[in-house]
Amino acid sequence: MLDKDEDLESSSPVWISFADLMTGLLGAFVLLLVGVMAAQLDMATRLEAEVEKRQVEEQKRQSLEKALAVPLASGRITLNNGRIGISGKLLFELNSDKLEPEGRKLLKSLVVPLRSYLQSRDEMLMVSGFTDDQSIKSRNRQFDDNWELSAQRALTVTRTLIEEGMPSSMLFAAAFGQEQPLVANTNEKARAQNRRVEMAPVPKTSNTAKP
């Protein structure tokens, strides 16, 4: 009788250890399952946010296309990823920041649709100037470099839009010089593409939204 009791007592720690092991494994499995579910939920949330973001961007693109249907149809402007592009030759003579009459006429035609679009979305318009990669000093001593030329062109367009009825609180100018070319500056045709002004609706910051 004593031997049986001793055998039972000696086997008890084994069962206890096995139970502890199973409990540990079950706990680890639960933690793993919770982690997987959390990761899937996070992935689903991110996917949903990305889909919503793309839907908003698509709606914005369609609204902008509708607002600028006439100048887009005439080929005088382009629209790519929310950026309105105008060839430099439509606005300025080569290496000049003096606006051409046809350029002013084009900008005037954009004021009403752009103003309406910006007001409906509570956004601002960033007017950006770009140049080719050729040194401006050898072509026009009025400007120190391409940064200055692109800045002056952006300012000229900005001021013209204001003169034609765009509220000054709705836009600002930016200069990129020869940076961010549309195509490689391999020949004159390519350089002509890179000499341009772009306008892009952007969200108002907390500072600009305040009067």
Question: What does this protein look like?
Answer:
The protein is an alpha+beta fold and 211 residues long. The chain folds into 2 domains: 1-67; 76-209, 2-Layer Sandwich (60s Ribosomal Protein L30, Chain: A). It has 7 helices and 5 strands. It has helices at 2-67, 69-74, 88-91, 101-121, 146-163, 188-194, 206-209; strands at 78-80, 83-87, 123-130, 171-177, 196-203. The chain is elongated and about 95 Å long. A 5-stranded mixed β-sheet has the order 1-2-5-3-4. The longest helix has 66 residues, at 2-67. The chain crosses the membrane at residues 15-39. Residues 79-205 form the OmpA-like domain. InterPro entries: Bact_OuterMem_StrucFunc, OmpA-like, OmpA-like_sf. Keywords: Membrane, Transmembrane, Transmembrane helix.
N-to-C series of helices and strands: HHEEHHEHEHEH
CATH architecture of the largest domain: 2-Layer Sandwich
What structural class results from the helix and strand content? alpha+beta
Cα-based radius of gyration, to the nearest Å = 32 Å
| CATH topology type of the largest domain | 60s Ribosomal Protein L30, Chain: A
Task: Report how far the terminal alpha carbons are from each other.
Answer: 95 Å
Q: In the CATH hierarchy, what is the superfamily of the largest domain?
A: OmpA-like domain
Q: What is the helix tally?
A: 7
In terms of DSSP E residues, the strand content is 5-15%
- Trace the largest sheet across and list its strands: 1-2-5-3-4
Q: What's the helical proportion of residues?
A: 55-70%
Protein name: OmpA family protein
Domain OmpA-like: 79-205
Pfam families: OmpA
Region (Disordered): 191-211
